[in-house]
Amino acid sequence: MQYRHRLSIAGVLLIGPLLPMSALALDAPKERPILTISGKISAKNTSDTARFDMKMLEALPQHSLTTSTPWFDKPMKFTGPLLADVLAAVKARGTTVHAFAINDYNISIPITDTAKYPIIMARLINDKAISVREKGPLFVIYPFDSHAELRTSTYYERSIWQLKAMEIK
Amino acid sequence: MKFDPPSLARWQGRQWAAALVALLLVTLTPLLWIQWRQYHMLDDLAVNQVDSLMWQAYQLERESDRLKQSLQDVQASSRPIDPWHLAERYDVFLSRIDLLTNIPRRDLLSSSPEYSNAIGLVNSFVAYADPVFSRPQQLIDNAALRDQVIKRLSAMDLPLSELTRQANRAVARFVDERNRQLRQQGWLVVVLATVQILIMLLFVGLLVRHIRRQQLQYAELHGLSQALENARDQAEAANHGKSVFLANMSHEVRTPFQGLLGMLNLLNDASLDTQQRDYLQTARDSATHLLGVLNDILDVSTMESGTLRLSPAPMHLPGVVQEVDGLMQVAARDKGLTLTMTAAADLPEWVNADTTRLRQIMFNLISNAIKFTETGSVVAHLALDPKGQSGILFTVRDTGVGMTAEAQKQLFTRFYQADDTPRRRMGGTGLGLEISRNLARMMGGDIAVQSSLGSGSVFTATLKLTATTPPPTHATIGADLGSSPRLRILVAEDHPINLKYMNILLQKMGHEATFCENGQEALKLLDQQAFDLVLLDYHMPVLDGLATTQAIRALEGPRSHISIILVTADVVNDTRKRAREVGVNEFVSKPLQVKELQSAIARCSLPDFGARGDEVPEATAPLASVLPFSSYEAPVHLPDAEQPINALIDSESYEEILQLMPPDSLDELLKTVFDGPDGTAHVLAQCIIDGDRAAIGYNAHKLKGTAMLMGFRSMVATSTQIEYLAMQTEDPIDGELGQQVLREAALTRKAISRFSLTAAE
């Protein structure tokens, strides 16, 4: 691990000047970053992470879905980029996303889930930005209503809210 | 529960199906409803995870602690604190409140005082803290403000942990309630399933009952049809039995009737005055008519019992036509009619046909035509059937009374004369036409009629008769015989008395007889000597009449064609038929009569016997052929009821014996019957006492033969009965029968002495 770490630094130092855009493909966040992605990713905007502010997430293609959840007493409309698109933006290569919430909650999400379901990384609920006190700023949501097999604790657990960081493994 | 079985029994498949569907709907619908309820319960549970309620309460308590900790860390930590970190902690704490107050199943908790207390405290804290945390830097800088916030947070510790416990209790109660519901539904499922099973069983029971009932009905119907079949079979058997009985009876009646006719014929030869002759003629006509009626009944009966068989043989067609013409001309002349009988030139000379039956059809049609024609003519014509290849057309045309179309329809119906038509007034049995048509049908043809009232009738019989070659003649044997009328006759007869009698008879007839005891010896003699004729007894030891005939016919050379006459007491038609089949030429009945033997020999048509043969049958010919007789028995003489002696002895037979036999031979013969202990009567009585069935049968047969020859009527009857019992049945033979034989022997002997006296007188 240490060896690899050193090698990657060496890579940045050596190859960086030749291919200035290859490792730092992602623009740097202009506002306060709200999401940090680390691990097996190719597109970064710091030395070893990719950091996103809300504008950057808003720039990705937006999707909406309305579904009922255990956390709201009625179906809500969730809007935001697809988790798959976010992972594509950082050129993630691993098999698992290890997600962390502000309240220290963390869970592993298999990347295969993103191929099977349109998982949304919601930044709006009912078209309004989500504050931290309303389980914001980011809320990973599965399409529970349209897929009965998702209505189990496994997938409810993966629906992480107050999301702040992800590590790709 | 009351079901009406008969109406249920009438249920069809569709009704059963409807009942079954209704039953399934009634029992399955609640089950489906319960399943649907449970599915939704589980689904609801998945969406609205109740246990998260407890979790959220706990998290709220914990985030409160963490917020407090963060504030305390500011004081303790030497490092600079990020004010945004504090704000974020506060927001996380707030998000927990939000969760607890907006969670789907918060209703489980919201009614409790702990909840309102805790939420009230939290809300007042939020109202206080919101402006404070909007400037977090202030909290880092101002220790007093921090302490105040910490203090207020600590005040919430107890109520929040109380809320967590309350949430825990609420969830537990919810789980209890859900379990109770599930148990209830489980019970309902069990009850419904039980009801369903019970109703199913009831239906199965009803179905089984229904099927049983149907099976029972089927069995009843089957039994009924069986009974009907049995009844039909019995009726058919009874009808058949009746026909057989009728055939037997008319046969029985016919036999004495021929005797009566014979007597009347003999009387005709006697010297009578005109009136007596007239009476006699009337009696003869009546008897002849009656015999015709009997013959018809016999024919119909045999046809109905299915025992009538045709016995086709090569037949000389022109000969038959000539014969019929000759006999019918007399009848036509008597009525003053002209009868013209013609035969087409292209007819085959020999055809395969049952002569007797063909003659019967011709007689019937022509005599009918004569009967119903007062003036004019009857024209009978025989020609080839233009339609058939082997058919012969026999047409009888008359100028008689004719018939209406209705009468024609009923013409072939039995006893048609029972109604009051001209036919009835003219007499006739009414069976003749039916018999003729049946015979014609048996010959593969039919009889049709065309007629109109007042202008005569045309009867047409179509018959399928195939042309054939003439039968072999006895020309070669005849050549060997020369011209001598004296015939060399071989006689096979095991009965000594019959042997003796036959010897006398044949000597008187002027023939030369050679005797032997059985068929085997006869075959040996045939091998050694030349004979013109063979007389075979039907019942013989070693080789019987039929077997001997077969053996003779199987010989090589001209010997196999020798004429054979079978001597039999058996009157059954079947025997004669079988005998004909194996090659017997003629029959004579026991006891032998001179005339009968003579005519039988004549019928064998030995070429050189012609001169005598023509004379002999003359006497019996009118009787034998005027009526269309079948091949029946020769007459048996009836006893005279006025003379008691004749109950024991047939006077005519005995007189014949007396004339034929020298007195010493007769005495010797009588001794073999009557004298003890070796006389047949005594031997038979002894055998009956001994109970030796074979010996009883043999001796009874022997006694019967002798008694028949001598005309001992009662002894014939008794010995016949004993023979029948011994040979045909398993019944025990009563010792009384032996005594009866002896009694009758004594009586007969006595009667003979009286008879001799009477005869002498």
From TrEMBL, chain A:
What name goes with this protein? Oxidoreductase molybdopterin-binding domain-containing protein
Q: Which InterPro entries match?
A: OxRdtase_Mopterin-bd_sf (IPR036374)
Superkingdom classification of source: Bacteria
From TrEMBL, chain B:
Q: What class of enzyme is it?
A: transferase
Where the record annotates domain Histidine kinase, the positions are 248-467
Q: Which residues does this entry mark as bearing 4-aspartylphosphate?
A: D537
Q: Check the record and name the SMART domains matching this protein.
A: HATPase_c, HisKA, REC
Xref: InterPro entries: CheY-like_superfamily (IPR011006), HATPase_C_sf (IPR036890), HATPase_dom (IPR003594), His_kinase_dom (IPR005467), HisK_dim/P_dom (IPR003661), HisK_dim/P_sf (IPR036097), HPT_dom_sf (IPR036641), Sig_transdc_His_kin-like_C (IPR004358)
What keywords appear on the UniProt entry? ATP-binding, Cell membrane, Kinase, Membrane, Nucleotide-binding, Phosphoprotein, Signal, Transferase, Transmembrane, Transmembrane helix, Two-component regulatory system, Virulence
Q: Name one Pfam family in it.
A: HATPase_c
Enumerate the catalysed reactions: ATP + protein L-histidine = ADP + protein N-phospho-L-histidine
UniProt GO molecular function? ATP binding; phosphorelay sensor kinase activity
Choose one Gene Ontology CC annotation of this protein and give it: plasma membrane
Q: Which CDD domains match?
A: HATPase_EvgS-ArcB-TorS-like (cd16922), HisKA (cd00082), REC_hyHK_CKI1_RcsC-like (cd17546)
The EC number of this protein is: 2.7.13.3
The membrane-spanning stretches of this chain are 16-34, 187-208
All copies of domain Response regulatory, residue ranges:
488-605
Q: Which PANTHER family match?
A: HYBRID SIGNAL TRANSDUCTION HISTIDINE KINASE J
Function, in words:
Member of the two-component regulatory system BvgS/BvgA. Phosphorylates BvgA via a four-step phosphorelay in response to environmental signals.
Name of the protein described by the UniProt record: Sensory/regulatory protein RpfC
